[in-house]
Amino acid sequence: MIEMKPAVKLPTTGERRMVTGDYAAAWGAMVSRPQVVAAYPITPQTMIIEHLAEFLAAGKFDAEMMRVESEHSAMSAVIAAEATGVRAYTATSSQGLALMHEPLFVSPPMHLPIVMSVVNRTVASPLGIWVEHNDTMPQRDTGWMQIYVEDGQEALDMVLQGYKVAEQPLVELPMMIGMDAFLVSHTIESVDLISQEDADAFLPPYKPVHAYLDPQRPMVVGAAAPPEYIQEVRWETDLRMRRAAEFLEETDREFGRKFGRTYGGMIETYRLEDADVALMTLGTVTSTAREVVDRLRAQGERVGLIKLRSFRPFPAERLQDATAHLKAFGVYDRAVSYGVGGPSYIEARNALYDTTTMPILSFLAGLGGRDVTPQDVELMFKKTLAAAGRGRRASGVHWIGTRGVSP
Amino acid sequence: MTTVKDLPREDYFLSGHTACPGCGGAMVVREVMKVLGPNTVVYMPASCLLIFSDMYPYNAFKVPSLQILFETSAIAAAGVKRALKRLGKDDTTVVAFAGDGGTADIGMQALSGAAERNEDILYVCYDNEAYMNTGIQRSGTTPFGAWTTTTPLGSTSEGQGKNEFKKDVPRILMAHDVPYVATASLGFPADFLKKVDKAKAKKGFRYLHVLAPCPVGWRAESDSTVDLAKLAVETGIFTLLEYEDGVLTLNREPRFTPVREYLKLQGRFKHLSEGQIASIERWVKDKWERDRALAKALGPKPKVPVAIVR
């Protein structure tokens, strides 16, 4: 039995309505005023572009909308539009993101701050349409910032926050915002649909600083280059990704001051201060894990939770600070790097190598979109508690709820 | 109308680029840019053109230029145009210059999509009939019998040069019913410039397919580029045509010089057997019969659909 929590008054700045996560993302895109939208349909992202097309048809939204022939072209079109000097938006999922892999590499070195909503979905094979993070996580090294959200409101808010961070002249990196398939994209929740006026006050019009195509001031955008120059481009892109961390934190605080909601920046913590062990989750499993933390706390277990919001840039310093007092740390992933473990587990172990010798465990569950139940999460906590104080030898990869293999 | 006599002295594709001597592609770009002028944005895919014109820190264009990827010429040009429209610069011409590989093969999907949506861009394919930048590999537009590095010579049936005929890209574009499709040859500059002029003036999707001999890849003398481009038309192996608002016109009735006069100037054809040459002659004859029939059959197309706001 999960107890219902008392109703809290949710802050509303626009119109509060019951909408899907896809609607929320589309609304966030609309009020961000992109000048060019290019997209290709794929389940479960389709409703995002359908809603944008409806807004456009109804005259609520004014943009060039390109209904292109593939995701490869959708990404290439928004790259070209941003390179010309306007704000651009696209959305995709799964196979579509995989098809975009090639153009994904193009915009970070070119200083093109595109924002894209990605509904996280299984990548074949086997073909599946349900949630998994093995579409976005393999895009880790393309130079895109990667954020994972938990609900429709966060999916909307992060589009606005995303442009604000991405367009910082010291950052100028694109951002993808991961939303769990169906659990966010198709779930109807109460969402504060931020008004255009409030959005405009938060997000100023885009003014390109370093890259644009203007016959009055000709420049080459995206040249070829010999080895004498490319390493510096890599270094400078790496620098901007490091800088982005600070702006993610600051922009979330600024958003909080304006809209009354914050998300903790790159990570959010729950009942962590006096915890002995903690679990790190991302996406919708976090909602389940909060309930499990409350339940275990009621039983006297000192457990806490970290919600990983930013996968790139990876919040290494914040994690080091947040976990300094822990005796064991479990990391949940909805994707697997075959033969190694969960991608955010790999990242967390790397980030914490210098600051801790506690065991860090990898938990893999919910792959292919299988439900991750409170019992599953409880098992993760129990395993982490059992490892507490046993040192790095107790680390390892644990598959949870694998039929015929693990409980 | 731009003629050879009043061709602007001003260049927007400048000398100092690093193309090979006699490069047909560079000539195509230079002439097109003379007509298009300064209010132009250029897109280039990964190609010979990119390498010889925009290898950092050098740049041969006097206008802004963009490069994203190999297969993205049509979509990138379309994205630029849509953005320019939003910026109130709808009068700026957006041109994509792509080779035959980037057009007929890897870029076909984006090209077809942009044509179907009637994106307001000019797409120029400089057709040098193989992947020259990567070292003369066979493409969809490589002619039958031609030696390339991926159709090398040998004693088997796989060793006789390319075993397939050239892909007819302009005909594919005509099937999209775009406002303008034309072919041109460096050997007929008056016809070429007239077509660039027309293409510049029109709105919507415009496609120019220009035969651009590559002396290196064709194994020909570097001073033979224009002669080869002329001979290709006069032998009938390359047709000058124009598809405008649904009407197909064959612009020049060739002299039908024997096709071997064209083949013998190029090392890529020197292995051809009498049987292969006969195949090419037959292909040319068939092509002309078909194109003539098509020109006769194609009449004005229905008007462009117009959205009615109720």
Write up this protein.
The complex is a heterodimer of chains A (407) and B (310). Chain A has helices at residues 21-31, 46-57, 71-84, 94-99, 101-104, 152-166, 196-202, 227-259, 285-298, 316-323, 343-352, 374-387; strands at residues 15-20, 36-39, 64-67, 88-93, 115-120, 145-148, 175-180, 188-193, 220-221, 267-270, 277-281, 303-308, 310-312, 328-333, 360-364, 396-399. By secondary structure, chain A is an alpha/beta fold. Chain A has a seven-stranded mixed beta sheet with strand order 3-2-4-5-7-6-13, sandwiched between helices. The longest helix of chain A has 33 residues, at 227-259. The radius of gyration of chain A is 21 Å and the shape is globular. Chain B is of the alpha/beta class and 310 residues long. Chain B has one domain (24-297): Rossmann fold, CATH 3.40.50.970. Helices cover 35% and strands 13% of the residues of chain B. Chain B has eleven helices and eight strands. Chain B has an eight-stranded mixed beta sheet with strand order 2-1-3-4-6-5-7-8, sandwiched between helices. The N and C termini of chain B lie far apart (41 Å). The mean pLDDT of chain B is 95. The interface between A and B is large, with 41 and 44 residues. Strand 9 of chain A pairs parallel with strand 2 (65-66) of chain B, so a sheet runs across the interface.
Task: Produce the secondary structure layout.
The complex is a heterodimer of chains A (407) and B (310).
Chain A: E1 15-20, H1 21-31, E2 36-39, H2 46-57, E3 64-67, H3 71-84, E4 88-93, H4 94-99, H5 101-104, E5 115-120, E6 145-148, H6 152-166, E7 175-180, E8 188-193, H7 196-202, E9 220-221, H8 227-259, E10 267-270, E11 277-281, H9 285-298, E12 303-308, E13 310-312, H10 316-323, E14 328-333, H11 343-352, E15 360-364, H12 374-387, E16 396-399
Parallel strand pairs in A: 2-3, 2-4, 4-5, 5-7, 6-7, 11-12, 11-14, 14-15, 15-16
Antiparallel strand pairs in A: 1-8, 6-13, 10-12
Chain B: H1 24-36, E1 40-43, H2 48-53, E2 65-66, H3 73-86, E3 93-99, H4 100-105, H5 108-116, E4 122-127, H6 169-174, E5 180-185, H7 189-201, E6 206-211, H8 215-218, H9 225-234, E7 241-244, E8 247-250, H10 259-263, H11 274-297
Parallel strand pairs in B: 1-2, 1-3, 3-4, 4-6, 5-6
Antiparallel strand pairs in B: 5-7, 7-8
Helix pairs in contact in B: 1-7, 3-5
